[in-house]
Write a structure and sequence with these properties.
- It contains 3 helices and 14 strands.
- About 35% of the residues lie in helices and about 25% in strands.
- It is an alpha+beta fold.
- Strand 8 and strand 9 form a beta hairpin.
- The relative contact order is 0.13.
Amino acid sequence: MAKKFLSVIIVPHTKTSTRTLSFTRRTLKLLGGSGAFLALAMAAFLTDYVSMNVIRHRYRILERETAEQKVKIADYEKSINQLQATVTSFENYTKKLNVMVGLKSPDILKGPAGLGGGAPEAEPSETAAVPPAQVSPTGSIQGLIQKAQSIETNLNSLVNITESASLKLATTPSIMPVAGWVSSGFGMRVDPFTGREQMHWGLDISTNTGNPIMAPADGIVLQVVTDKYLGKHVILSHGNGITTTFGHMSNFNVRAGQQVKRGDVIGYVGQTGKAVGPHVHYEVHRDGKPVNPYNFILEE
């Protein structure tokens, strides 16, 4: 039986002779199968290509979102650290307010070693200043919330107390007596004259000679005297068992028995007595016992 053929006649546009291509049924089946396979392969390739493009597009979106999330997380961490610092600042401020109203009186902060001289060493009445415990900057948000709530409760108690104690606050030291920098803090230090370690019962605030020294609270001038240790110095009584002392003055601006208000000029910075350089030796006493003056300074 003769094989069946499929003939394809190619007629060129030129005047050359035509060309005939003949295909057997088997050849046609092979060509059809190959074409179908190629079509399926091409379809699979295109499907995979489109799928990979979609995946790449989604990956780029996720990558961009991840980068944005990292930036947001970094911002959140920065905000939490700032919040931590703010809460700690409020906590220290609240401790100072507690000292002022007498709820508790720990010596919280310790100043640097200084250069000024002071009165002869006396028996200690309170423990030396102890730095506050530091809170980890990675503390949880819940911990910050609890601490803020504790501070809020404490401040509410302070508000209730201070509303009925305005006179007491007016007579409680709360400002720096002079514009300057603390060159020697309250606590143990090496005496600049003897080279020996001894207790320093106040703050040495270095500044220029002649600068005004102000009363840190309302009170009465107890003494206006001169000795070899504090030189020219003034002692104020503020009531409630609190007195303040200001040493190494160059001149006085008050007299004994005079009433003063917070901010009144009581004298001028000098270097009289046992002093190295012009400064004010500032002491605070409660019930006759020296306490850390820094706890009474609300200015920062």
